[in-house]
């Protein structure tokens, strides 16, 4: 006899595809109506699976979708967080199928947001439905899904601080991370922080003819490229003074334990089309991603980029630069150091403006907590293997904020894979992963409720 999940999986997938068709891109104002439509869609699904007090909570930006099910105030409460907004899909021409016309091929769901984070959020919605079909919830659940994660969650902290009683819980559960492989389950226990900036370099007061003026005036694009190149030395060490002052240094034993995760540089290179790995000298690929800070250019532009030729020296050049941070760095500290340094290294003849965008703090979550053990046991039940604790290279700034404002630790029970191409063209999410998440999450609740009762 087919399991309850097998009986309903086609409908679960169909509903997810409907949600993925809504282009909830928070970064682009032209999609604002679609962002609200995606929130309304999720609100309706909350109501269908039996959550109470379902509402769209207004913020200064996009609404937060909230619902709860309190079956017994004496039982533990889990607060689920996720986000319904998605990254821009540009460049559209690099997608094999339109980003907001989801398709399933080779057992993968292709669409913007398929993995990050609509697919993983929807696992939780359907896990609630599964638990209701299988006899009810073992503990209290609150669900808070925001619409601004991809633009820095600027209004989430305000909402959390104003609603501490509403959000009172015992632990936070998030599925916005990944695991090592479908046959190598893992749980992320560390995330890097973030300091993100836009820089502007201005030279002459207008675009100039590169023949008449070339060689006699500073070219902002040339200058910007030189400034960016100077931010790393020959060992790929970041050259900003005091940048590494507070970086947590792991012991040899801790580094050896971190490098126990199954990783192959050859497979890593092959998966992204490289002929060699790259990074800070003296560290492995696993360490470079998990425990070392980084600085990367995320975008750079200026001058003429249209068809054909236009021989100009641009008046301005721009770049977007992000730094991933590790314990015990702080985003405020690194933001100030970057602003000071980048302004200081500008040559005469240009002016530089550094505009900080959003930031977030690095975090390490405990592996000896009741909640972590409940998650590990749940994954062992459904995967048949004990998950490996890992440190992720990405950032979820609100994890540190939840600890500060609500006093709660977070369990990062993610089911994505590095190969899912999140933030890139052809983002996808495995059907296996989506269904495995729906299967695993109820085990977490049961394990957690039983352990807290014991």
Automatic annotation (TrEMBL):
Xref: InterPro entries:
Cyt/Met_Dipeptidase, Peptidase_M20, Peptidase_M20_dimer
State the superkingdom.
Answer: Bacteria
Report the EC number(s), separated by commas if there are several: 3.4.13.-
List, alphabetically, the Gene3D superfamilies matched: 3.30.70.360, Zn peptidases
Query: What Pfam family is a match for this entry?
Result: M20_dimer
Tell me the CDD domains matching this sequence: M20_dipept_like
Q: Which GO terms describe its molecular function?
A: dipeptidase activity
- Recite the UniProt keywords alphabetically: Dipeptidase, Hydrolase, Metal-binding, Protease
* Record-annotated Peptidase M20 dimerisation domain positions: 198-348
Hydrolase among keywords: yes
Q: What name goes with this protein?
A: Dipeptidase
Source organism of the structure: Hymenobacter canadensis
